[in-house]
Design goal:
- The structure is a single chain.
- The chain has helices at about 10-25, 30-35, 40-55, 120-130, 165-180, 215, and strands spanning about 90-95, 100-105, 110-115, 135, 140, 145, 155-160, 190-195, 200, 225-230, 235, 240, 245-250, 255-260, 275, 280, 285-290.
- Residues about 55-75 have low confidence and may be disordered.
- By secondary structure, it is of the alpha+beta class.
- A nine-stranded antiparallel beta sheet has the order 1-2-3-14-10-17-8-7-4, with helices on one face.
- The longest helix has 14 residues, at about 165-180.
- It folds into two domains: about 1-65, no CATH class; about 90-290, Jelly Rolls (Sandwich), CATH 2.60.120.620.
């Protein structure tokens, strides 16, 4: 039996329902579950709720269209190949530390690691970053320039590969865990989220059809994988969420979540849609590493 087409647009009745339930204090996840049960595409429901909470989505027509099959932005169904991360055991032995694999998923390729960073290393990254934080930016899809947006309410900074012996030692360990050469990685990014800070659902890869992507793809090619390292225990919330696959990863000092999204055919995996949930108490510190297809010029 053919499935009913997924709802990817919002009616006025659903808009009012979202507004009423936000006012009641319902969580985004609980509202997404209700809408998904009523045949909404989960990613669309998540976006609608967050847009309305932020004051957007003023008037949307009642429209229903078929949900796209899991596919890249280039239109072809994403083909899963041998993953870049193909560590068979539960422990990854790096030159200076054993890293434990506590969770893995094949489609999309996702893994969670424990003991990637020591508490002292996390504290040192926070200390070094605190003195040079700036408001975080995103790459504008049209211009390719770095822009500050409301959807990313964090402060951050970068470290180059050889900025210090300390950073270089971390880079060597990360390279082994991600199974990619150090030179393919972008600089280590450190982010700090205060209460209310979040990063709404997004993709880490550069969409080729966006005019602003060309300048970034010319330097190292496409991003292929991401490693998000947690530098502290968040008092409340601040999880990394993957709305398309229903996965939530809770921050824990020294742990990390890894995912990859580009195959040898340059297809991009839309199931890696992810975001950072708002911090509800305390603060959140993370370090992020992005790997490219080839050497990245920095």
């Amino acid at each position: 039996m053919a499935q009913s087409p997924k709802i990817t647009y919002l009616s006025m009745q659903w808009k009012q329902w979202i507004q009423e339930n936000l006012a009641r204090g319902c969580t985004v996840d609980s509202m997404v579950d209700v809408m998904a049960a009523q045949n909404f595409e989960r990613a669309s429901a998540n976006r609608f709720i967050r847009d309305i909470a932020a004051g957007g989505v003023s008037s949307l027509p009642v429209t229903v269209q078929a949900a796209p099959a899991p596919a890249s932005r280039q239109g072809a169904a994403y083909q899963y190949e041998k993953p870049l991360f193909h560590q068979p055991g539960n422990v990854i032995k790096t030159p200076d530390r054993d890293v434990r694999v506590t969770f893995r998923m094949k489609q999309p390729v996702v893994a969670v690691f424990d003991n990637l960073l020591s508490p002292d290393e996390c504290a040192e990254l926070i200390r070094l970053s605190s003195i040079k934080l700036k408001r975080s930016t995103i790459v504008d899809p049209k211009t390719g320039r770095e822009e500050v947006i409301d959807d990313r309410s964090s402060f951050g900074t970068f470290f180059t590969h050889d900025e210090s012996d300390f950073v270089a030692s971390l880079e060597r360990r990360i390279s082994v865990v991600m199974n990619q050469p150090i030179e393919n990685g972008e600089g280590l990014q450190i982010l700090n989220y205060k209460v209310g800070g979040e990063y709404k659902a997004h993709f880490d890869y550069f969409t080729p059809s966006d005019s602003g992507s060309a300048v970034h793809l010319a330097n190292g090619g496409q991003r292929v994988s991401t490693l998000i390292m947690y530098l502290n225990d968040v008092e409340q919330a601040g999880e990394t969420i993957f709305p398309e696959i229903g996965l939530t990863v809770t921050p824990k000092t020294g742990s990390a979540v890894y995912f990859e999204y580009c195959n040898s055919q340059n297809q991009l995996d839309p199931l890696t849609l992810h975001g950072g949930a708002p911090v509800q108490a305390g603060e959140k510190w993370i370090a992020t590493k992005w790997m490219r297809q080839r050497r990245y010029g920095g």
